[in-house]
């Protein structure tokens, strides 16, 4: 209590290291906000679900995130013994899917247009 949840993330993209920090309503919220700052995407989390997938002190947690971006709706999954890390992995799964969509969708649209001619 009395502590502002903050997170710092470091992401390597195309050989460049980018780092940002953010605060939020909780550590997971701060983490996703920091990732948003690095990648510059407008992502809205619509659903967040955490499940334990093993038992005991070293139990694995699996996080599933459903998010909406201008490119569409994406689902990301991450697993770790640390729920914040699992959440970050799930969010990055969404980010990576958006990156692939941005990279390959214009090419696919162009190929479909040529095929229909």
Summarize the topology.
Blueprint: E1 6-13, E2 16-23, H1 27-39, E3 44-52, E4 61-69, E5 72-80, H2 83-115
Antiparallel strand pairs: 1-2, 3-4, 4-5
Description:
With 117 residues, the protein is α+β, with helices and mostly antiparallel strands. The protein has one domain (6-115): Alpha-isopropylmalate synthase LeuA, regulatory domain (Double Stranded RNA Binding Domain, 2-Layer Sandwich). Helix content is 39%, strand content 37%. It has a three-stranded antiparallel β-sheet with strand order 3-4-5. A hairpin with a 2-residue loop joins β1 and β2 (16-23). The radius of gyration is 17 Å and the shape is globular.
Question: Could you write a compact summary of the structure shown?
Answer:
This protein has 117 residues and is α+β, with helices and mostly antiparallel strands. The chain has helices spanning 27-39, 83-115; strands at residues 6-13, 16-23, 44-52, 61-69, 72-80. It has one domain: Double Stranded RNA Binding Domain (2-Layer Sandwich), CATH 3.30.160.270.
């Amino acid at each position: 209590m009395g502590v502002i949840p903050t997170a710092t993330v470091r992401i390597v993209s195309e050989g460049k290291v980018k780092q940002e920090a953010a605060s939020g309503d909780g550590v997971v919220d701060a983490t996703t906000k920091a990732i948003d700052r690095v990648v510059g995407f407008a992502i809205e989390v619509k659903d967040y679900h955490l499940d334990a997938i093993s038992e005991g002190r070293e139990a694995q947690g699996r996080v599933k995130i459903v998010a909406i971006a201008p490119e569409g709706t994406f689902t990301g999954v991450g697993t770790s013994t640390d729920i914040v890390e699992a959440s970050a992995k799930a969010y990055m799964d969404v980010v990576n899917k958006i990156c692939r969509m941005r990279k390959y969708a214009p090419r696919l649209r162009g190929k479909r247009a040529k095929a229909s001619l």
